[in-house]
Design goal:
This protein has eleven helices and ten strands. Helix 1 packs across helix 3 and helix 4 packs parallel to helix 6. The chain binds adenosine-5'-diphosphate and magnesium ion.
Length: 298
């Protein structure tokens, strides 16, 4: 069972207790910030993977967390999605502290992890139905939510086929449908297009962009691809060795370096490095390979 399935089960199992404890059905996000990280810190042994990260993501934004492999992006996201408990500082989602109220935070989030979260031996529809049950979508709403999530991701027609017949791009869209079945206020995507060919990458982004037009949703994503961040993000944060080095709109960050600067130049300016370091161990190539293996699916 994946970490995501376990988290969903935990959410479902404790939902009644938490509802009683909080005595509230508060699910609607108020205006203001979707995510606030304050001095957020996490270490693996002696290695500080996330080092006093301050970050504010506004309601309705598409926000990109950019950085090379090992920068600390996934660890930050795992604290935000309550899969890891912060060792220092705090993170809140729509004003709810993730460490204090993990179940309430999980219910507001749709999460597409870096690693495969769809089951190849089920059909597309069965996968989305499984998530609807895991996330405790009320029985009376399930059918409609499952079908509309599949349709929103362009999967209505292939929904009854086994996932092992899907292309990499279709699997990514299915994982998005799984994350959407919960009607999340915050959609979190960890490397949504890594390992996909350029056409499938654009395709996935167009579905996300279309979704943004119709749903009141904040999107947080991580990526290695500067061009994607430039095109699709309202604001970005550059992360390197566990810290945020710069935050702003892609336009502003580029303008600060001069007229012809690219986002790659901006990244190099703030970190002294590049996102595409081929010698880097466990770098982008490894991630690509991992995603490719995952896509082959038995
Ligand atoms: N489970 C783990 N055990 C030990 N070290 C880890 C673990 N997960 C991540 N790390 C380390 O923490 C750092 C940040 O990793 P990660 O958050 O996955 O970065 P990114 O998502 O930006 O590639 C890396 O140096 C990585 O090796
Ligand atoms: Mg990562």
């Amino acid at each position: 069972m994946s970490e995501l399935h376990e988290a969903a089960l935990a959410t479902a199992a404790t939902s009644t207790a938490e509802a009683a404890a909080t005595n509230a059905v508060v699910r609607e996000p108020a205006g203001g910030s979707a995510v606030v990280c304050s001095a957020l810190t996490y270490s693996f042994g002696a290695h500080t993977a996330v080092d006093h990260v301050d970050l504010r993501i506004e309601h309705g934004e598409t926000f990109g967390l950019l950085g090379p492999n090992g920068a600390g992006k996934t660890t930050t996201i795992r604290m935000l999605t309550t899969l890891l408990r912060p060792m220092g500082g705090s993170v809140s989602v729509f004003g709810v502290n993730a460490a204090e109220r993990p179940m309430r935070v999980r219910r507001m989030i749709g999460y597409v992890p870096q690693m495969l979260s769809a089951d190849a031996t089920l059909t597309g529809r069965e996968n989305v139905q499984l998530f609807a049950r895991l996330f405790d979508v009320p029985r009376s709403l399930r059918h409609e939510r499952v079908e509309s999530a599949l349709a929103a991701m362009g999967l209505a027609e292939p929904a009854s086929r086994l996932v092992k017949t899907y292309s990499g791009g279709m699997i990514r869209r299915l994982e998005l449908a799984q994350a959407l079945v919960n009607s999340p206020s915050l959609l979190v995507l960890d490397e949504p297009t890594v390992g996909l060919d350029p056409i499938a990458r654009t395709d996935v982004w167009e579905f996300i962009a279309r979704l943004r037009e119709t749903a009141d949703m904040t999107v947080l994503m991580t990526t290695h691809y500067m061009d994607e961040a430039d095109t699709y993000c309202d604001r970005i944060a550059l992360m390197h060795s566990g810290s945020i080095r710069a935050t702003g709109t892609p336009g502003l960050l580029k303008a600060m370096l001069g007229q012809s600067a690219t986002l790659d130049d901006v990244f190099r300016h703030y970190t002294g490095g590049t996102l595409y370091d081929d010698d880097e161990k466990g770098g982008i190539r490894d991630v690509r390979r991992a995603r490719r293996t995952a896509h082959r699916l038995g």
